[in-house]
């Protein structure tokens, strides 16, 4: 038996088609969504990600504002760039590409929460905890959307998340345990005594540890869905958290590349559009 693919690249394409119509509708009402990015330094991976985001935007009618700063930039210089985007009406949402090598909490906190398309601003994470409307973190949201669009039931499901990183593992459980998802979430990490005992009970495993091949076939319940979120580089090639033999046991696996990565981009676009729609609704009711 071999697992079915959770196709992130194909799903990104489908979501882009849907968003193209929503962007056109916004433009008809005089709102032009514009995504800003702030990139610090010349890490090739970060450049690729940011380039991909702008290409995605161009395809669906979102304008782009790209701010590239040298690796020698100071905290104050990056904060000045953030202030400009906060004040720029053409920029309806933006992000600071991580890592910057600077004080990231200070940078995140400086972004206008209503322009925070990453969903990582402390106010938006707080809104998520409180159950209030805000922007949601792109990668965990992408995991949920990928499962949903492949017909995988989350209601009542046992979901085991591996890794407590701030962008994925930590907020994942908050999204999964909303009433709209109603999953049971277990968060495992390096302090977990018996990781395999947890993953073996899971209907869905979300592997976001950043440890190549940490999830092996013997750790997965037959038929389970396994999402490979981790991105490491081994000999210049992308290596995920999910070992190849998992395809023999699992019912569904997200490939890496081609799985959660493209879904992160899809949810970024979705956040840009949703936030622009909200700003229009707010204007209409004002
Ligand atoms: N403020 C901020 N927001 C982010 O969303 C953010 C960030 N910083 N820093 C880095 C991570 C990483 N990330 C990815 C986005 C797309 C792919 C992606 O599309 N990958 C493709 C191709 C990968 C390749 O071939 O190199 C794939 O998985 O198929 C991966 C990873 C966003 N991040």
Automatic annotation (TrEMBL):
Species: Nocardioides oceani
Sequence similarity: Belongs to the tetrahydrofolate dehydrogenase/cyclohydrolase family.
Domain named Tetrahydrofolate dehydrogenase/cyclohydrolase NAD(P)-binding: residues: 137-279
Keyword Oxidoreductase appears in the UniProt entry: yes
Subunit and partners: Homodimer.
Enzyme Commission designation: 1.5.1.5, 3.5.4.9
Binding-site residues, NADP(+): 163-165, 231
Domain of life (superkingdom): Bacteria
Functional pathway: One-carbon metabolism; tetrahydrofolate interconversion
Name of the protein in its database record: Bifunctional protein FolD
């Amino acid at each position: 038996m071999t697992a079915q693919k959770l196709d992130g690249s194909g799903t990104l394409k489908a979501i882009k088609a849907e968003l193209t119509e929503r962007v056109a509708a916004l433009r008809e009402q005089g709102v032009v969504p514009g995504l800003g990015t702030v990139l610090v330094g010349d890490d090739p991976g970060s450049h690729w990600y940011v380039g991909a985001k702008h290409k995605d935007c161009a395809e669906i009618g979102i304008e782009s504002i790209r701010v590239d700063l040298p690796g020698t930039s100071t905290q104050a210089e990056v904060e000045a760039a953030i202030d400009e985007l906060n004040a720029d009406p053409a920029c309806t949402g933006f992000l600071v590409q991580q890592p910057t090598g600077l004080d990231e909490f200070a940078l995140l906190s400086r972004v206008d929460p209503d322009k925070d398309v990453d969903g990582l601003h402390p106010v938006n994470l707080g809104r998520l905890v409180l159950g209030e409307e805000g922007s949601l973190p792109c990668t965990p949201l992408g995991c949920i959307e990928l499962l949903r669009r492949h017909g995988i039931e989350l209601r009542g499901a046992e979901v085991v998340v591996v890794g407590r990183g701030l962008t994925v593992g930590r907020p994942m459980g908050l999204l999964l345990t909303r009433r709209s998802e109603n999953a049971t979430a277990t968060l495992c990490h390096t302090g977990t005594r018996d990781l395999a005992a947890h993953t073996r009970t899971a209907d869905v495993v979300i592997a976001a540890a950043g440890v190549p091949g940490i999830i092996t076939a013997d750790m997965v319940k037959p038929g389970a869905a396994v999402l490979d979120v981790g991105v490491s580089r081994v000999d210049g090639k992308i290596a995920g958290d999910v070992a190849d033999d998992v395809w023999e046991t699992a019912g569904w696996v997200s490939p890496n590349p081609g799985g959660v990565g493209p879904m992160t981009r899809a949810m970024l676009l979705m956040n840009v559009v949703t936030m622009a729609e909200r700003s229009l609704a707010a204007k209409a009711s004002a």
